[in-house]
Amino acid sequence: MKILVIGDIVGSPGRDALSSYISKKRKEYDFIIVNGENSASGKGITGKIADEFFCWGIDVITSGNHIWDKREIYTYIEGNERLLRPHNYPQGVPGKGYTIQKSSKGEKVAVVSLQGRIFMNPIDCPFKLGKELIEEIRKETKFIIIDFHAEATSEKIALGKYLDGKISLLYGTHTHVQTADEKILPEGTGYITDVGMTGSDSGVIGTQIECVLPRFLTGMPQKFEIAEGNVRLNGISVVLDDETGDCVSIERINIGDAELKY
Ligand SMILES: [Fe+2]
Ligand SMILES: [Fe+2]
Fold first, then answer.
1. Tell me, what's the pLDDT at 262?
2. Is 176 in the active site?
3. Considering all CA atoms of the chain, what is the largest pairwise distance in Å, rounded to the nearest integer?
4. How many angstroms does the Cα of residue 19 sit away from the middle of ligand 2?
5. Does domain 2-200+228-260 have CATH number 3.40.30.10?
6. Annotated domain spans of the chain
7. 67 HSE (CA, 13 A, CB side)
8. 3-state DSSP call for residue 183?
9. Does residue 163 carry a pLDDT above 90?
10. From the CA of 228, how far away is ligand 1's center (Å)?
11. Model confidence pLDDT, tens digit, residues 102-127
12. If you ran DSSP here, which 8-state letter would residue 104 be given?
């Protein structure tokens, strides 16, 4: 099974890049996942944008800490199980942190969203809740993919190793910076610390430098606007063994404006 994962889509530059790439690549893949937490002007996602992504052929949209930025999503996420919020938010929070959907070949694919706790708002333990959830999901399918939305590289590596052999793939999101450590762990789980982002590379992780610099220079809050131009699309292309669910190959995707246009 061939799977495409695209990192955090940032605003309209990210959405345009995604649309262009997916229109050319949809048929090559059996299952496509994107992280949409920054797709609405860098802050959250709207129902209209989520519907558009599904129309383009995205199977599941994951998210993270920015999922709550647009208030309208509180109700949308209750009615669409293909848009995920991190599973380890406290009980009673709107939406769900995992879903099981069919690939184009008809296999059941589970996608789980988890969020880290290092340098992030404290929520429930991703290790404990993640492991318990996977034990349940494994009764239904061996194809299990986790988007671990976390800041610290150590936390991501630790969760990858903790779940090695129990899931097909664990990839990181949230930092918006692609790491070059893609690998297959000893027990067969595909792993990368961060898949990166899809948006303008002109600013600072998708935001205009004119908005970001004053915050660093003065320590005072600033209104953030998304950057434009010099767009990059980041993600991974992954092959899973149809019999075992193990990862067979994992390759980084990191392409710019020029390639996106063709
Ligand atoms: Fe993000
Ligand atoms: Fe995030």
1. 65
2. no
3. 56
4. 21
5. no
6. 2-200+228-260
7. 28
8. strand
9. yes
10. 16
11. 999 999 999 999 999 999 999 999 99
12. T
pLDDT in tens, 59-85: 999 999 999 999 999 999 999 999 999
The count of residues in the chain is 262
38 C-alpha to center of ligand 1: Å? Answer: 5
Which-ligand-closest: CA of 195? 1
**Ligand having the closest approach to the CA of 120:** 2
Ligand nearest to the CA of 45: 1
- Two structure tokens written together for 244: 């075992």
In the reported structure, the alpha carbon of residue 73 is separated from the centroid of ligand 1 by a whole-number distance in angstroms of 16
Say yes or no to pLDDT of 203 above 90.
yes
Helix/strand/coil (H/E/C) assignment for every residue in the chain: CEEEEECEECHHHHHHHHHHHHHHHHHHCCEEEEECCCCCCCCCCCHHHHHHHHHHCCCEEECCHHHHCCCCHHHHHHHCCCECCCCCCCCCCCCCCEEEEECCCCCEEEEEEEECCCCCCCCCCHHHHHHHHHHHHCCCCCEEEEEEECCCHHHHHHHHHHCECCECEEEEECCCCCCCCCEECCCCCEEECCCCEEEECCCECCECHHHHHHHHHHCCCCCCCECCCCEEEEEEEEEECCCCCCEEEEEEEEEEHHHHCC
pTM greater than 0.85 (yes/no):
yes
Q: Which two tokens stand for residue 5?
A: 């994962």
Q: Which residues contact 155 (CB under 8 A, 6 or more apart)?
A: 116, 117, 118, 148
- Of the candidates 74, 109, 81, 108, the one whose C-alpha atom is nearest the C-alpha of residue 97 is 81
Taking only the tens place, the pLDDT of each residue in 81-93 is 999 999 999 999 9
Q: How far is the CA of 65 from the centre of ligand 2 (A)?
A: 5
